[in-house]
Design brief:
By secondary structure, the chain is mainly beta. The chain has one domain (about 1-504). The protein contains 7 helices and 35 strands. The longest helix has 11 residues, at about 265-275.
């Protein structure tokens, strides 16, 4: 994901980009930002972001981009003024690591070992206590009912206070649903209903993927999670090797599940983990002969359509949008060519190399492209792709156009590592660019009286590691033409963030 973002970027001062992968401290209180330009009066709310913020515990380093401990960021906007605040999320992984001053729970690409201070018998039995799944929720933030949750891709989500950034509680979804984990990219309907997908064991120990449904806020103020249920189940192509799933598609009447050749070897996960100290990355493998399968299911009632279509192999992390169009389902995706797992290139040692080595490693990684496909609902017999651009971290006017025919998508352009605007119909593109700058995923916020799809702003956190004063800022762009409206600069470095949301 991030390595390939660097491929075509303008040459930056040696080593400057590495600062976005360095540990930082949380803030005791919000700090004021220096605003230039004019923030729209209607833009009053909070930009919430999450990502890794602690890349080592004492002398023990984390090895993968997705191992750093979860740090939550907040830009508050009110009356043209902006403040910035951040706090580490008090997950079990973080609290225990800080208490014991070592890595206690195995992360995505970093193995936790028994306490060396224990005797040999204690260390031996620690290996056989089973898998302790991480709750390091560094990937995304989303609402459920009237609450907000930070998440990763395990069965744990963490309830947080979006105002104070205080950690409230850990929730184990396995207590309510038959899933082993869910994605960090759920879908939300206008009434607050939340849908997500996760793998599970079905009948006769067969592997499957469950679409789960969490109802909207309850009149009696009870927790919607307690009323969640499995809505429909997709079969797996392999019995003990589920595909890695990072997101899924949803139209007004259908769910779209794309099963990729990147697999999790469950037998290895369940057996060798406890004995040999295996981490999550060690359990991934790629099936170069499988290709990629498209599955469909209806939403109401939730029923699997017993047809699927096979295409050439590609990695998939983010859906852009899906919608129905005259008997077809249009599926827009950010894909990466081939079956080689992109996350293999996101080890921190690779990303912190000298610039020339980073570029060489990136050229060996799968290459990105945006694909638009049409799948016939009544007779799933053909599928065609059109490559329209190369970007990642896609966003749309989600509130009004999720699951509907749309025109504009926004993301990080991988040819220049800057926010892009893409007309998915005409293939026309717009970009914002500034030398030596590293933006985050741009989030779309619609104007309150908007009549057009693209009437609103984009918000992105931009870091300029080579600048000594105010090295980071909140960037606000016009979503119509990507002209700059305002920026709010802060005098602290902000490490890489992955995903987030805007809370009005």
């Amino acid at each position: 994901m991030w390595t390939s973002v660097f491929i075509y970027s303008i040459e930056h001062p040696a080593g400057g980009y590495k600062k976005i992968f360095e540990s930082c401290e949380e803030l005791a209180e919000p700090i004021p930002a220096h605003v230039s330009g004019k923030i729209p009066a209607w833009l009053t709310g909070s930009l919430l972001r999450v990502g890794p913020g602690l890349f080592e515990i004492g002398d023990e380093p984390f090895y993968h981009l997705f191992d750093g401990q979860a740090l939550m960021h907040k830009f508050d906007l009110k009356d043209g003024h902006v403040t910035y605040y951040r706090r580490f999320i008090r997950t079990d992984a973080y609290v225990r690591a800080m208490t014991e001053k070592r890595i206690v729970i195995t992360e995505f690409g970093t193995t936790a070992y028994p306490d060396p201070c224990k005797n040999i018998f204690s260390r031996f039995f620690t290996y056989f206590q089973g898998i302790e799944v991480t709750d390091n929720c560094l990937v995304n933030i989303y609402p459920i009912g009237e609450d907000f949750y930070a998440c990763t891709e395990t069965n744990y989500i963490t309830k947080v206070d979006p105002d104070t950034l205080e950690t409230i509680k850990k929730v184990d979804l396995c207590n309510y649903l038959s899933v082993n984990g869910v994605t960090a990219h759920p879908h939300t309907e206008p009434d607050g209903t939340v849908y997500n997908i996760g793998n599970c064991f079905g009948k006769n120990m067969s592997l499957a993927y469950n679409i789960v449904k969490i109802p909207p806020p309850q009149d009696d103020k009870s927790d919607p999670i307690e009323k969640s249920k499995v809505l429909v189940q997709f079969p797996s192509s392999e019995r003990f090797k589920p595909s890695y799933v990072h997101s899924f598609g949803m139209t007004e009447n259908y769910f779209v599940f794309v099963e990729t050749p990147v697999k999790i070897n469950l037998l290895k996960f369940l057996t060798s983990w406890s004995i040999r100290g295996t981490n999550y990355m060690d359990c991934f493998e790629s099936n170069d002969k499988m290709g990629t399968w498209f599955h469909l299911a209806t939403k109401n009632p939730g029923e699997y359509i017993d047809h699927k279509f096979r295409t050439s192999a590609f990695n998939l992390f983010h859906h852009i949008n899906c919608y129905e169009d005259q008997g077809f389902i249009v599926v827009d995706l950010c894909t990466w060519k081939g079956h080689d797992f992109v996350y293999n290139y996101l080890y921190l040692a690779n990303m912190r190399q000298n610039w020339e080595e980073v570029k060489k490693a990136a050229m060996r990684a799968p290459q990105p492209e945006v694909q638009i496909s049409k799948k016939k609902i009544e007779n799933i017999s053909s599928l065609g792709f059109v490559c329209v651009s190369a970007f990642e971290f896609p966003q749309i006017n989600y509130k009004k156009y999720c699951g509907k025919n749309y025109t504009f998508a926004y993301g990080l352009g991988l040819n220049h590592f800057v926010p892009d605007r893409l007309n998915v119909k005409s293939k026309e593109t717009w970009i914002w660019q500034e030398p030596d700058a590293y933006p985050s995923e741009p989030l779309f916020v619609q104007s309150p009286d908007a009549k057009d799809e693209d009437e609103g702003v984009l918000m992105s956190i931009v870091v300029k590691p080579g600048v000594t004063q105010r090295p980071a800022f909140l960037l606000i762009l016009s979503a119509t033409d990507l002209t700059e409206i305002a920026r709010a600069e802060v005098d602290v470095m902000i490490p890489v963030t992955l995903h987030g949301m805007y809370k009005p």
